[in-house]
Amino acid sequence: MVTAEQGIETADPTNIVIFGAAGDLTKRKLIPALVRMIENGLVHEDSRIIGVVNNRTEEVWFNLIRESLGRFSPQLGMDDSKWEVFSSRMKMVAGDLASNDTYVRLAESLEKLGGRKNAVFYCAIPPEWYGKVADGLENNGLVSEEEGYRRLVIEKPFGMNLETAHELNQELQSVFNEKQIYRIDHYLGKESVQNLLVYRFANSIMEPLWNRNYIDHIQISVAETLGIEYRAKYYEHSGALRDMIQSHLMQVMTLVAMEPPVEFTADAVRDEKMKVLRAVRRFDPAQVKQQTVAAQYASGTIGEEEVPAYVAEEGVSPDSATETFAAVRFYIDNWRWQGVPFILWTGKRLPKKVSEVMIRFRKPPFNLFNSHASIPAPNALVFRLQPEGGVVLRLNAKKTGLTTDNEEMVMRAPYADDASEVADAYEVLMHDVLTGDGTLFSRSDEVEESWDIVEPILNAWKDRVSIERYRAGTWNIPAMDELSDDCACGWHKPT
């Protein structure tokens, strides 16, 4: 939990405008984050939350928000007194996003709330509406920063390929300047992801080992037990590569691989991330099959629950070849990382819900213990991103007793003893938006460069009519063993 008492900056008074204020993202993530931030003194008391909602009265919207807080965030304990305090900061503007009248009413509402001061416009809406919202704001004088800052927050996907990403960037940049646009990736708001930079650059023992001389390979993974839930329409057009690797995992890869920035500022950090992306080796069509894996879950068992195959999910075509598991083996062609494989993988309906960055070090140059049954395994440093963030170091140690045989010793260091001490990703990112810190947000050139990297893979996959399948609830994906067969210890399955 982050509080103002910890020396964290409290933002200036700001009108927080949420487009799509009755949607799932708002109910599950944005409102709970704002509640916690207000309770902890991170939102100025003069700030207001303005929901833009269609086909609802303000009373109905208020009731919807309160009901959702009880359902999705019961730990907040939203009793009558707390709700009275929070709801006093809320206001609704009714209207369709396609109608200019909606933006006229929004401008009038902002005027009544103390003039056209600082404002954040959060687009919790489908991407096809981003341009329309930007135009509506501009046409009604809500983009100008003469009397206060204006910031636009958008959620991924930032396009579905290089062309659409470029078009989206151009559309938004015709209204807002780049420093006003915050492309939010909730993965980068996780405590454990941010800690990657601190562990790397605040500990002198790390940097000498952080290169091709000592590291065999790196695996960055997100394993999920859930299926596609209610997202069939989106997922059929996206797949795991677009949904997770192009955005979340490649962003994490840049943090793992980047050089030290000259200073810890948004542009300095993002400049170094861009250098990593530019150095990623591009794929030619012949390499895609050898360097990637695509698979789809069949029916199986998660825990004790029988779950259907992907093609049996509601809204999915019975002959769909969309991947629910994707892996890519990247190489970064620079001095530090030449020849080191970066294997990024993600999948649904796997045995565990876990996200990790696993650094596998090289084998010792000489084995003193090869006369014994146990041969020392290469060391590993694992950054657990979720569910419980922390660091795991795997070392070799002597077994107790009259022997020189060795065994693996696992040293664990959680980030926090109490999970309640860890701020939710949306709290972190919303606070950064309010204070103008763009470090954890993707810049337009990062977005387009990452699409340029994965586009050859997308092109190679787009016409496939069949796909390898794996049984839900298992790690039985043979192609992954092949993809990592020359890596020390092979495919790392999280435990």
Descriptive tags:
about 500 residues, alpha/beta, Rossmann fold, Dihydrodipicolinate Reductase, domain 2, 2 domains, 9-stranded mixed sheet, 6-stranded parallel sheet, about 20% strand, globular, disordered N terminus
Secondary-structure-based class equals alpha/beta
Oligomer: single chain
CATH hierarchy: architecture of the largest domain:
2-Layer Sandwich
Instruction: Report the sheet with the most strands, covering strand number, pairing sense and barrel closure.
Output: 9 strands, mixed
* Neighbour order of strands in the largest sheet: 16-15-14-13-7-12-11-8-17
Average residue pLDDT: 90
Strand content: 15-25%
Low-confidence stretches: 1-5
The CATH topology of the largest domain: Dihydrodipicolinate Reductase, domain 2
- Contiguous helical run count: 13
**What's the CATH superfamily of the largest domain, by name?**
Dihydrodipicolinate Reductase, domain 2
Beta-strand segment tally:
17
Instruction: Compute the CA-based radius of gyration.
Output: 24 Å
Helical percent range? 25-40%
Question: Rough shape?
Answer: globular
Structure commentary:
With 495 residues, the protein is an alpha/beta fold. It folds into 2 domains: 4-155, Rossmann fold (3-Layer(aba) Sandwich); 188-483, Dihydrodipicolinate Reductase, domain 2 (2-Layer Sandwich), CATH 3.30.360. It contains 13 helices and 17 strands. It has helices at 24-39, 58-72, 80-87, 100-112, 130-139, 162-173, 191-201, 232-257, 266-279, 285-291, 425-435, 444-461, 478-483, and strands spanning 15-19, 48-53, 90-94, 119-123, 150-155, 181-184, 215-223, 292-298, 300-302, 305-307, 325-331, 341-347, 354-361, 380-386, 390-398, 406-414, 468-471. The chain has a 9-stranded mixed β-sheet with strand order 16-15-14-13-7-12-11-8-17. Strands 3-2-1-4-5-6 form a 6-stranded parallel β-sheet, sandwiched between helices. The protein has a two-stranded antiparallel sheet with strand order 9-10. A hairpin with a 2-residue loop joins strand 9 (300-302) and strand 10 (305-307). It is globular.
